[in-house]
Write a structure and sequence with these properties.
By secondary structure, the chain is an alpha+beta fold. It has four helices and three strands. It has a three-stranded antiparallel beta sheet with strand order 1-2-3, covered by helices on one side. The N and C termini lie far apart (39 Å).
Length: 144
Amino acid sequence: MDQNLRRSIILDHYQHPLHRGLIEDKSYQKSDTSNESCIDEIHLMAKVENQIIKDIRFDGEACAICISSTSIMIQTLLGKSISEAIQITKEFENMIQHQEYDASILEQANVYDDIYKQPNRKTCALLPWWGMKKIIEKEDEINE
């Protein structure tokens, strides 16, 4: 991916993140994640109905990589089934860890395909995905 396009996508999602702001609604699952080595702290909430992710919201304080990754994750996972979200999350983690992955299902999340070159930034990109992984795994267990 062109570096200017990559930078533009990340910056846009950092400056104008999707679904920022938590709401009071008990039908949402919640998850909190933080990075012990920096300020990154992400609070997620997601609404799942009939195994489909209907809404994801977040708040927190974090760096540009973490906030943009959260926004891109939301855009990527909204409307997906729990099983699709599990697969997408797995592929994203593989990409960040520089392992074999399926880029075709990651949509804009592919902008982080070279973050493995900056080991100190991996957690920044992964943090929201780890939080969402907790939520979707809990949903998957509930419905087994």
